[in-house]
Design a protein that fits this description.
Length: about 210
């Protein structure tokens, strides 16, 4: 991923937080026919073989991913959070110089590692329970795997396969207007808030330390 210095986010804990908060990843693997991309919720787990932790998930047994990939080649999981179109009209400097252009702000993390297939019903059940419990935690009446009929769950477990990625390196790109002067950052934050894009406004403000 191309990362200019002012958009680089090297802090591991910040990247791990994004992966935890936005778990739907684009998992890119090398198959016999070339590159393959699947969109899979991946649950970040602190424990693992590396300091970066690991990513756990599952796929349908009918998905050829688990049999058609190169185990010697790294896989890439792409995570993204907020993104927003940035209009030149939102910059305070526009009336002064006119030297502004449209752009797109976004935040992304690339997680690299080796893919491991886990065809173990007990492991898959634990993965489902752990991920579900975390995602359901904020609901008034959280659903759990145990709420479903046991025979129904057991049948479903035979139809999915577990995947684990031991993360070996991370790249973080926070492209949130760090290259703009303070007056443009301020006007942009105001415009984003007025347009209802408060999450991106907060990201710009945080990067600018306002």
């Amino acid at each position: 991923m191309y990362i200019p210095k002012h958009f680089d986010e090297p802090r591991i804990e910040v990247m791990q937080t994004l992966m935890r908060d936005y778990p739907l990843a684009t998992l890119v693997t090398l198959s016999a026919d070339g590159l393959n991309a699947n969109h899979i919720p991946l649950h970040w787990v602190e424990a693992g073989e590396t300091a970066y932790g690991s990513l756990h998930g599952h796929i349908a047994r009918s998905n050829p991913l688990w049999t058609d990939y190169d185990p010697k080649t790294e896989v890439l999981a792409v995570f993204q959070s907020e993104n927003a179109y940035i209009s030149p009209s939102w910059y305070a400097s526009k009336p002064q110089t006119g030297k502004v252009v449209p752009t797109w702000n976004y935040v992304a993390v690339h997680a690299y590692g080796k893919l491991k297939i886990i065809d173990d019903p007990a492991w898959i059940r634990r993965q489902l329970e752990t991920m579900t419990d975390e995602f359901e935690a904020d609901f008034p009446e959280p659903w759990s795997v145990a709420d479903a009929p046991a025979d129904f769950t057991e049948r479903l477990l035979t139809q999915i396969v577990g995947i684990e990625i031991s993360v070996t390196r991370l790249q973080g790109k926070w492209k949130v207007s760090q290259n703009q002067p303070p007056e443009n950052q301020n006007s942009l934050i105001e415009a984003l808030r007025k347009s209802g894009q408060t999450a991106m406004a907060d990201l710009v403000a945080e990067s600018a330390k306002f």
